Amino acid sequence: MRLIPALLLAVTPFAAFAAGSDDTEPPKPTETSQTCKNGQVWDDKIRACVNPEESRLDDDARFRAVRELAWAGRPADARRVLAAMHEGDSDRVMTYDAFTLRISGRIEDGLARYEQAISANPANILARSYYGQALVLQGEYGMAREQLAAIDNRESWAWRALNHAIETGETANY
């Protein structure tokens, strides 16, 4: 049994979208995933790859790089960028930490981080979708359906991806 109590799912009101309007759509490839190596991030201002710790980068730029690298199948590089973020354990950091753990094969560690992200922000539909997909990988379809019901937005990528995983057993690992 996972740690998120069913009671939390039943009594918490859920917003339709996670923080950030683009969080539920796949990122478009940029120079970060196409040119940069070893967890570096493209800096548009100087038109070069830079280390993610570079002070010119803000956390939003780092977050975009984390998403892009994770979706490009480069979880180790995404984790390097996550480690450079200044916002601490925000729900968006925990969501992508969990995602990179999951796609690295560390599913149980990923599940725990998704639970932390959802506890921090129950309206984080991206965390709920990825958490539900990880539950599908564990054969926990009932719990995955609880996450689907909590998303409550059939138009979102998060809902569609989790629904697809429940129906087919295929998760979004990109």
Report on the structure:
With 174 residues, this protein is mainly alpha-helical. The protein has two domains: 60 residues, no CATH class; 87 residues, Serine Threonine Protein Phosphatase 5, Tetratricopeptide repeat (Alpha Horseshoe). A two-stranded antiparallel ribbon has the order 1-2. A hairpin with a 4-residue loop joins strand 1 and strand 2. Helix 3 runs parallel beside helix 5, helix 5 runs antiparallel to helix 6 and helix 6 packs antiparallel against helix 7. The longest helix has 14 residues. The two termini are 27 Å apart. The N terminus is likely disordered. This is Tetratricopeptide repeat protein.
> Would you tell me the structural class of the helices and strands?
mainly alpha
The secondary-structure element order is HHEEHHHHHHH
The name of the CATH topology of the largest domain is Serine Threonine Protein Phosphatase 5, Tetratricopeptide repeat
Number of DSSP helical runs? 9
Q: Which CATH first-tier class of the largest domain would you pick?
A: Mainly Alpha
- Measured between the Cα atoms of the first and last residue, the distance is 27 Å
Mass-distribution shape: elongated
Strand content: under 5%
Mean pLDDT: 85
Instruction: State Rg.
Output: 16 Å
Strand order of the main beta sheet, please? 1-2
Protein name: Tetratricopeptide repeat protein
Pfam families: TPR_19
Keywords: Signal
Signal peptide: 1-18
